[in-house]
Structure formats: structure tokens, C-alpha cells
Amino acid sequence: MPRRSRTLIASPLDWQMTAEPVAPPVIPVLAERGGTQLRTPLPIAVVDTREQIPLCLRRFKGWFAGIEMRALALGDYSVAGMEDSCVVERKDLSDLVCSFTQNRSAFIHRLRRMSKLPHGLLVITAPLSQIKSRYPYGRRSTPNQVTQSLIALLAGLRLPFVCTETHELGEEIVASYLYQTFLYDWLDRNGHGRFLTDGDL
User: Fold this and answer.
1) Fold of 41-189
2) Domain spans of the chain?
3) Cα angle value 167/178/149 (rounded, 5°)
4) 159: number of CA atoms within 13 Å, CB side?
5) Beta bridge partners of 68
6) Cα distance between residue 94 and residue 92, in whole Å
7) What predicted TM-score, i.e. pTM, was given to this entire model?
8) SS3 assignment, position 13
9) What is the percent of the chain where pLDDT is above 90?
10) How many other C-beta atoms can be found within 10 angstroms of the C-beta atom of residue 40?
11) Nearest one of 18, 24, 76 to 50, comparing CA atoms
């Protein structure tokens, strides 16, 4: 009778996961060519002065050459020298609901402008499950309306969005996006191509 082979790694469907995010890396990603690390500069992150509760990017010391606080024409975060091509808009849950209801026309206009840029991202510092749940505010809107507006943003304007469970995870996602957008742009402009290592991203 043949022996049953033992599965060494359980199916991910059987995993019992708890959310315990690890600390961010000292440096997010490095670019290599032929196994040799390229000497790439660090970007300067720009934070819009009108952000009411700005994300703290200063803790990512190995990711940026500096942080500037100044008014941006569009969005809440960008990279110095790429303000016209790289924009991140950040919303917490209450602001997202308000933006899709009371301030919908202005918000949609802003998103349309972002969708025309090479690099635009909407970051929501709330999990998707909360966006889809009943709100203690925003009576003019339902969770389904807000969720469908986000999907329309993705399908209609082709503008991506990311939901994060916490404010701190939002900081890391925005910091990493700004860093990598700058890095890919630098690689492209300096004739290295838009990939990090040979045969990889």
C-alpha cells in the first residue's frame, strides 16, 4: 500500500494570521545591474502644508535626503522635482466619506487631474472592511456608494487606491511609493531601464 506523502507547507487557506506589521526596512529597495549596486540618489519628499494630520515621513531616515513642507498645487505628498508627475492624495475614513458626498464635485475634479499624471495614488488610512461598514456620520452616503465610487475611480479613471489598517501603515506605504517612484524615474532618465535588478521588477 503506497504511503501518503506528507505536506511540508500548509495551504495558505489554512493559515491563521494575526495583524502584527513588522518594522519598515532601513532602506526599502536597491537597484542593481550585473550584481553590482547602483549609486542612486535619495529623493526629497514634499508634504503639503494644508495637510491637517500629516503623515510622519521623518522616521524613514534611510529613504529620503530630506522632507520639505510647502503648498502643493495638487495632492498631499510628492517628490521634489516631480510635483507635476507624482502625486499622492491621502484620506482618512471620515474625510473620504465627506469627499465623496458634500465635496464630491471638487474631489472628483481633483481625482481627474491626478489620473492624467504618470504617477497618482489615493491612500486611505482605513481598512476596506470599515469603508464597507455603516458610518456614524455621512448620512447622505452609504458604504456601498463610497465603495462603488472607489471601484469607479479604479475602473473609470484608472487611478489606483490603497487601503491601510492604520495611520502608521499609511505612512510606510506613502513613503515607499514616493521613494520607488523617484528611483524608477532616476533609473529611466539615466539609461538603466525601468527595473530594479536583472530579470526582476
Assistant:
1) Rossmann fold (3.40.50)
2) 41-189
3) 60
4) 23
5) 46
6) 6
7) 0.89
8) helix
9) 82
10) 15
11) 76
